[in-house]
Design goal:
By secondary structure, the protein is an all-alpha fold. The protein is built from three helices and no strands. The termini are far apart.
Length: about 90
């Protein structure tokens, strides 16, 4: 445990940020999993679910949870799978 006040504050802040990032990542995994399942099952609402997943990935990118290249890669691969299922 740190002795310096500013470092004590950083410990508290980093725990808070980690919880926030964990919540965003958990939600992201859930939404992406639903989108993948909808693509695999060729569900009727597939397009809406994929759009929601892409939106969640973009949101995670803007919050700094995902790196921009990682987000772009995930979006690209999901779009490719969705387009292949539509064809």
């Amino acid at each position: 445990m740190p002795n310096i006040k500013s470092q004590k504050d950083r410990v508290v802040q980093s725990k808070k940020e980690a919880l926030h990032n964990k919540a965003i990542k958990s939600n992201l995994k859930t939404v992406v999993k639903k989108a993948d399942a909808a693509i695999a099952a060729n569900a009727a609402d597939k397009d809406a679910v994929v759009v929601a997943a892409i939106s969640a990935i973009d949101k995670a990118k803007s919050k700094g949870v995902l790196h921009k290249n990682t987000a772009s890669r995930k979006i690209s691969r999901m779009a490719k799978r969705a387009n292949k299922a539509n064809a």
